[in-house]
Specification:
Elements (H helix, E strand, L loop, with lengths): L13 E5 L5 H8 L3 E3 L2 E6 L4 H5 L8 E6 L4 E7 L2 E6 L2 E7 L1 E5 L8 H12 L5 E7 L3 H7 L8 E15 L3 H9 L9 E5 L5 H11 L3 E2 L1 E2 L3 H5 L13 E6 L2 E9 L6 E7 L1 H17 L14 E8 L4 H17 L5 E6 L12 E13 L13 E2 L7
Parallel strand pairs: 7-9, 12-20, 17-18
Antiparallel strand pairs: 1-4, 2-3, 3-16, 4-5, 5-8, 6-7, 6-13, 9-19, 10-18, 10-19, 11-14, 14-15, 15-17
Length: 387
């Protein structure tokens, strides 16, 4: 039965509190509220458990709900836990704000301000949060970026792009582009699947990459090998390692998250529904992403720790070739990754085909602008599977 809240909800009936396991179903319902983009209605789902899905986001969780006690339902939520990351080459906890949702029947009723009051009470150690807002998330942009009173100030860091890659483009064009670069040629690159004896080198490599990139999660891959829930759905054998002159110079993991997170197709516009069968046939030529049947989920692999020296574009391209090949062997053939526009590797995206999501990476804080604290020479790193 649909509940119609009063035009002005009784503020005394709204309580803000930390979520518990008993809220799991209500949280999944809030997260799954459909959104429409480009004529396709989609739902971001966290089945079978919201809390299990959040294991991969945080090492210390903070999930918050607003409950309307009069109508006995959760009407808004957000998360703002933290995880250890390399910040200016040293490990510290970094908060990441995500999953801001308001029940459609309660929008426009100042619930974001109510959540903002809770953020102010809990936003410490550190006193800022990372945040990513994609361009088509108009509700979040309106809530966060317009400087409304009662919510933390937003400080933009720069543009990012999430590319769900379906084809690597014209080989000759990319080869010509790479040949114009002056990358230092060293020894032959050898690849292998990660094994337990590589864990120490993998951990050391993440630390080395923090000399070039900021906000890399501080991983201990021994935890991955031990089955820690922070790596749910991922195994050590999902990682490919790249060695040059005996030194680890590149790596990525192929992460299938569909057992904990799904993007489900709920509805197509009449035009898209009509042409979908033809469009899917043509994707064999256009190299676009096929449109699933209604009710099905979009299938792709997420790339974990897609890392190499930021100037080694040829290696980066080679890793993406391998990632797509292995993904195809596993029955998918589509991989997704996120790069800052400041990352030199982003230049190669212009040659690739796939679905692109442009967004803004920034910070929220009540304590002033945190950006001057950060080393401007380091490239922002975004782990697509943890945003």
């Amino acid at each position: 039965m649909k509940i119609n809240p009063p035009t002005s909800p009784n503020q005394n009936s709204l309580i803000t509190r930390e979520a518990t396991l008993a809220d799991d179903q209500a949280l999944r319902a809030l997260i799954a509220v459909p959104m429409t983009t480009k004529g396709v209605q989609i739902s971001f789902q966290r089945e079978p458990s919201y809390f299990k899905a959040s294991d991969i986001l945080y090492r210390h969780k903070l999930h918050v709900v607003i409950e309307d006690t009069e109508h006995q339902k959760n009407v808004a939520c957000y998360s703002n836990g933290h995880r250890p990351c390399y910040v200016d080459k040293a490990i510290q906890n970094v908060r990441y704000a995500s999953d801001l949702r308001v029940d459609p029947n309660y929008r426009g009723k100042s619930l974001v301000k109510v959540l903002g009051a809770h953020v102010k009470q809990t936003l410490h150690e550190p006193d800022f949060s990372q945040m990513i807002i994609f361009n088509d998330n108009y509700a979040a942009r309106a809530a966060i970026q317009t400087g409304k009173s009662g919510i933390p100030d937003y400080y933009d860091e720069g543009l990012i792009e999430t590319l769900t890659l379906t084809h690597l483009g014209n080989k000759r064009t990319i080869k010509a582009f790479l040949n114009h670069r002056t990358e230092t040629e060293r020894g032959e690159i050898k690849t292998c699947q990660a094994r337990p004896e590589h864990i120490t080198a993998m951990n050391r490599f993440i630390a080395e990459m923090s000399q070039h990139y900021n906000f890399i999660p501080a991983y201990n891959f021994a935890e991955l090998h031990a089955g820690h829930p922070y790596f749910s759905g991922l195994q050590l054998s999902d990682f490919q390692l790249y060695f040059q002159d005996g030194k680890l110079v590149g790596m990525f993991g192929l992460w299938d998250q569909h057992t904990i997170k799904q993007t489900k197709i709920l509805h197509y516009s009449s035009v898209i529904g009509l042409v979908r069968p033809i469009y899917n046939v043509l994707t064999k030529v256009t190299k676009g992403m096929p449109l699933p049947k209604l009710g099905d989920s979009v299938r792709y692999h997420v790339l974990h720790s897609l890392l190499c020296h930021p100037q080694q574009l040829a290696l980066h391209h080679s890793m993406l070739e391998d990632a797509q090949k292995i993904s195809k062997q596993r029955g998918v053939g589509v991989v997704s990754f996120t790069l800052s526009h400041q990352d030199p590797r982003f230049q190669l995206n212009q040659f690739y085909k796939g679905e692109r999501l442009t967004g803004m990476h920034g910070f929220i804080s009540f304590q002033g602008d945190p950006r001057p604290k950060f080393n401007k020479h380091l490239i922002p790193y975004l782990e697509v599977g943890r945003i």
